[in-house]
Design brief:
Blueprint: H1 76-84, H2 93-101, H3 109-123, E1 125-126, H4 128-133, H5 141-147, E2 149-150, H6 152-166, E3 169-177, E4 194-200, E5 206-209, H7 211-215, E6 216-219, E7 222-225, H8 236-239, E8 243-245, H9 259-264, E9 267-268, H10 270-274, E10 278-279, H11 281-289, E11 291-292, E12 300-307, E13 311-318, E14 326-334, E15 337-345, E16 350-359, E17 369-378, E18 391-392, E19 398-402, E20 407-408, E21 412-420, E22 429-433, E23 439-441, E24 443-445, E25 454-462, E26 466-475, E27 481-491
Parallel strand pairs: 1-2, 11-17, 20-27
Antiparallel strand pairs: 3-4, 3-8, 4-5, 6-7, 9-17, 10-12, 12-15, 13-16, 14-15, 16-17, 18-27, 19-21, 21-25, 22-23, 22-26, 24-25, 26-27
């Protein structure tokens, strides 16, 4: 039987029966400088540090080396059209696919597929009950449309079915996904727990698609819709940090990684790539060590780079006991980017999980979301339980260099050093304040022209027991003063 052809226009309703007539949206603006997929330059392996023999090479940082795919295209119109398409068109895959691409028949395959992806990711809820009960059954695309619920295979099957209708090359891929409930490094080689798609649009390059992860996330036992366009035509070298196909050919990369490579990679969320973060070569070198020795006092240093508008914090917890390690952060600004060095003092040897969380101007309620998870095995804990880090209250333009021990020794001298990363970032002047409120001003120190920021320093005799503070001292016009606490030490 001859396959049905797409009519030039979908029939309109007769006497109010059937789906309403389609209203084409305004055409999306032309991209400023879009390269066809077939000529899109390959991302250098340096940016991701992944090879066939090892997951990460020493001193190679992890950062995308070019903008994310298709960010030069404005998908606003096509996304709105797909989200608002009347439900009456979602009776079967053929009717739905034709309706979704109907206004875009003269557009590129990228635009057409975007309509398919957006509809699936915004209209199908994850079937948490089926996942939790493990009552998973094969799901036909027509069943997914009727129930509007699916697990990963249901999403992938529906995407493939819609692509078949409009002639877009698409395959279903099965493999391992570092999704809900994943424990870093605990997966089994060859295991399949997830499904997604590979799609070829506009050329010879295959791109990766996960409409399931693009639809939202699970919070304990509840599915939350949250459209994530990162999983739309993702570059394979980014996708494989948390997706490993059982068939190596479905990696769609020039160099294939092995299962041990895959499980050795950090678990990186989409917001890492979207916000252009970087894991430094210093940190990837630690990840390659297997067992990290740390400094003589048990300190471990990890470093992340990011745009200046991104705020970050980390937690470090023992995987077996849940005990947290002491963490101290030091900022450094270079142009429009920020480098944060986190000093970590694990209390005991063992396996630890480092979790980086970020906040951006787009974050809701000033919340931080998980960005990267890195497992690390530590050979020793901190050598002295009395070390600890000073208590610091956030001031992103100041970075404390010393002392980095919480406890000061009375009857001895302490050298307080603070780097002001941007001039005039304080309201007043920097002082050290003793337990009896004696004030010791910090003086600027000449640094080499290559140094970043202004170094402030005070050499103070610790002649009082109790709490010592670094403060921003503000003189009032009437002769009084107020101060904002920045850091706290304790003299014993």
């Amino acid at each position: 039987m001859q396959a049905p052809t797409l009519p030039p226009r979908l029939p309109s309703r007769a006497k109010g029966v059937g789906p309403p007539p389609l209203t084409p949206p305004k055409p999306p603006p032309k991209p400023k400088s879009k390269l066809p997929l077939s000529t899109t330059p390959a991302l250098p392996s340096r940016a991701f540090g992944v090879s066939t023999s090892r997951a990460l090479s020493p001193s190679q940082s992890i950062r995308r080396s070019s903008p994310l795919s298709f960010t030069d295209i404005d998908f606003t119109a096509v996304d709105a059209y797909a989200r608002d398409l009347p439900d009456a068109y979602a009776t079967d895959p053929t009717t739905l696919a034709r309706a979704l691409v109907h206004p875009f028949t003269s557009s590129t395959e990228v635009i057409k597929f975007r309509a398919l992806f957006t509809w699936v990711a915004t209209h199908i809820d994850y079937d948490v009950a089926a996942f939790m009960s493990r009552a998973l059954k094969p799901q036909h695309p027509a069943d997914t449309l009727r129930s509007r619920r699916a697990v990963c295979s249901g999403y992938a099957g529906l995407v493939r079915s819609l692509c078949e209708v409009v002639g877009i090359a698409c395959v279903e891929v099965s493999g391992y996904g570092k999704g809900f409930g994943y424990v870093l490094g605990a997966g089994t080689a060859g295991e399949s727990n997830h499904a997604w798609n590979a799609v070829k649009v506009g050329g010879d390059d295959w791109r990766m698609v996960d409409a399931c992860w693009g639809a939202g996330y699970i919070d304990t036992t509840t599915f939350h819709r949250q459209f994530d366009p990162f999983y739309f035509l993702t570059h394979p070298t980014l996708f494989r940090y948390n997706h490993m196909p059982t068939n190596p050919q479905h990696q769609f990369t020039h160099q294939h990684i092995t299962w041990p490579d895959f499980f050795a990679l950090p678990d990186i969320s989409s917001n890492f790539w979207v916000n252009d973060l970087e894991i430094s070569g210093k940190t990837t070198s630690l990840m390659k060590q297997g067992v990290v020795q740390g400094s003589p006092t048990g300190e471990i240093e990890v470093e992340f780079m990011m745009p200046r508008h991104v705020k970050a914090l980390i937690t470090v917890t023992n995987s077996a006991t849940g005990v947290s390690a002491d963490v101290f952060a030091a900022n450094l600004f270079e142009g429009d980017r920020r480098s944060i060095n986190f000093l970590i003092r694990p209390p005991n040897p063992g396996d630890y999980l480092i979790t980086l969380m970020i906040n951006t101007p787009e974050s809701r309620d000033n919340s931080f979301s998980c960005c990267v998870k890195i497992p690390m095995t530590v050979a020793q804990g901190e050598t002295s339980k009395d070390i600890g880090f000073p208590q610091v209250w956030g001031h992103e333009h100041l970075s404390i260099r010393s002392p980095l021990s919480r406890n000061l020794k009375s009857a001895e001298r302490a050298v307080f050093q603070v780097v002001e990363l941007e001039s005039n970032s304080t309201q007043g002047t920097l002082h050290i304040v003793s337990p009896t409120k004696k004030q010791y001003p910090l003086s600027s120190v000449h640094q080499a022209s290559s140094s970043v920021g202004i170094l402030w320093k005070a050499d103070v005799g610790i002649n009082e027991r109790g709490d010592w503070f670094l403060v921003d001292l503000i003189r009032m016009p009437g002769g009084g003063a107020s101060w904002n606490a920045i850091a706290q030490w304790h003299a014993v």
